[in-house]
Structures are given as C-alpha cells and as structure tokens.
C-alpha cells in the first residue's frame, strides 16, 4: 500500500462521507484495502476536530 499524506487521507474520507463513492469504489480507485478505508472513516468520525 502506498503511503498517503494527511490531505490525501482526508480527501478519501470526504469522498466516502459525501456519498460520492462506496468503500469498494475507493478501494479500486486508490488501490488500498477496504479495511484501511473503513478504519480511516472510523478514525475521522472519532477525532473529527483534529482532522480539520
């Protein structure tokens, strides 16, 4: 898996949260695991104020 910057991680999470893409879509687009995206979304939801 490629290393992503904080900005890239936020971009991926926002694509999901805005309803534009599913986990499966993002998995294919960014060539990362479903679990990695799911984990980023969960982390974002828990620590939202730190990500902004």
Automatic annotation (TrEMBL):
Regions annotated as coiled coil: none
Molecular function in Gene Ontology: sequence-specific DNA binding
InterPro entries the record matches: InsJ-like_HTH (IPR055247), Trp_repressor/repl_initiator (IPR010921)
Domain of life: Bacteria
Domain Insertion element IS150 protein InsJ-like helix-turn-helix, chain residue ranges per copy: 8-46
Name this polypeptide is given: Helix-turn-helix domain-containing protein
Protein's organism: Peribacillus frigoritolerans
